[in-house]
Structure formats: C-alpha cells, structure tokens
Amino acid sequence: MPKRDFLSFQDVTKAEVNALFDLAARMKSGAYREKPLAGKTLGMIFAKSSTRTRVSFEVGAYRLGGHALFLSSQDIQLGRGEPICDMARVLSRMVDGIMIRTFAHADVEELAKWSTVPVINGLTDLHHPCQVLADLFTMKEHLGGYEGRRVAWIGDGNNMANSWLDAAALLGFEVRIACPEGYEPSREIFERASGATKVLITEEPEEAVEGADVVNTDVWASMGHEAEAEERKMAFKGYVVDAELMKLAKPSAIFLHCLPAHRGEEVTNEVIEGPQSRVFDEAENRLHAQNALLATLMV
Ligand code: CP
Ligand code: NVA
Prior knowledge:
Number of domains: 2
Bound molecules: phosphoric acid mono(formamide)ester, norvaline
Number of helices: 12
CATH topology of the largest domain: Rossmann fold
Structural class: alpha/beta
Shape: globular
Helix content: 40-55%
C-alpha cells in the first residue's frame, strides 16, 4: 500500500475524517488499548516553537506503544543547509513517520515527496491541519457534528483560517471570516472552498459571528510575523472576541482558540475563561485526534 501523508485536508476524504473521529472517541474513552506503534518511531522536526504539538505527539506516540524523537531544526543538519531531499531519505530509513512544523509549506511537500514514510504537517505558514482536526472533533463532541454548522473566524486569515476553509469544503459546513483588508486567507484556498460550500469574507466581525455555532480566533501575529506585531495591533484593533460579540452567536455557540492566546488582544479574558469557551477540551483533543491519525497512517 502506498504511504499516506497528512499535509492538509486535501489529503483525506470525508469518510476517513469520520472514521478518525470514531477512533479518537474510542481512544479518549479509554476503551482502546491497542499498541499499533509498538517498536515504531515518529521523528518530529520543529523549526518553530511549540507546546501542544510537541507534547501531544510525544505523549501520543508513547501511549500507542511507540517512541517520538524531538528534532529541533537548530540542532539537526537541516539548520545548516542539508537538502530536504537528503534528510527525507535518511530519516525514512530510520523512523516510521515524520511530523514537521516549519515555515514554507513547499518544504513540507518536498519532504513528503522524498520520504517513504508518512509525513504529518504540524503547522506551516499555510496550514495547521492537525489543529483543525482537533477542533472538528471538539465541535462533534460539543455540538453533535459539523455538517451544516456555521463557523466564524475573527482576525487574521492565517494558517488556521486556511485549514478551516479546506475542512469546510470537505465536510460541508459554512465558514465566515472577518478580517481587515490585506489579511485575508489564501485566495486559492478560499476560491476552492467557495466552489464546494458556503464561505464568506467580511470586514465586519458582527456579520461573521451572527448565528454562528462556533466562534474562533487566533493571535494577530503568528510565528514568523513577530516583526509586524505593532503594525498588526493597529490593523486588528476592531477584531476582538468579547462578550458583546459572543452575544450575536447562537446561545449554544462554543468559543475555540488553538492557543497560545493573547488575552486582551484577539480575545478578552471574560470570553476565554467564560462558560462558552472549550479551549482546554480543544487542546486535549489534539492528543486524541492525532493518535487516531498516527494509528491510521503509521501502520
Ligand atoms: N495550537 C498549537 O499548535 O500549539 P503549539 O504551538 O503550542 O504547538
Ligand atoms: N497561527 C498561529 C498558530 C499557533 C499554534 C501561528 O502560526 O503562530
């Protein structure tokens, strides 16, 4: 069987996502006791910081009977210019799967092209599919599903926004993105999604949140954009998820944030600590959703 990668939601079908969530639910409940990664190693390459991704993959691999290897790009030869095509072939002879977090999405595609073991995207500038996988699982737990639901995205049209658009196109829900001009998601991804489901870009947070089932935001300056932080603070001034904005969503709406969050910038303390917030379930679900993915891809 050819190896399978998970670089974005374009790599999976709707039936596969549903199957992953059935498995993730069994894993979360404790009913799943198998060790499909016994004797196997997941190599984890990080060119950016991480708390959740690193810990969830490392703990996850251990729970499945395997081992995870933390490879900071600072410390491996990649940081000194070793070509990705060489690293991919070397790692493929030693590990059974590769998770990578880096800047350019094209680098992950290059890695996947040359690797003979599955490659999982742990975040690039373009996508964060593992996070959205966990977010969808959280939606399923708290709202009963995602089909036909409305997801509001407030703020930067970043990697998370792009992955939400891809997921919406695949699974059939609506995404409304409110962002300032110049901070829209990828045009190509938006256009692809608009051919498959209801999607909207507006400059008005109120329009995006109205009647939403999920209200979602992220930091104004993602990793790699730190130098623009002050400029972005000005641009995103009106894009704060506060209690007033939450009132426009459905009363049953949940608030999600991939974390880390900047309280007082993209979200108020009241909302992130409030009764609609599911951010810690969302963070925990990284572990369960990814373990379903590891148990599916690394066998
Ligand atoms: N949400 C997320 O990916 O968190 P980390 O950057 O801590 O991995
Ligand atoms: N959009 C953020 C997500 C962090 C988990 C970033 O790329 O930095």
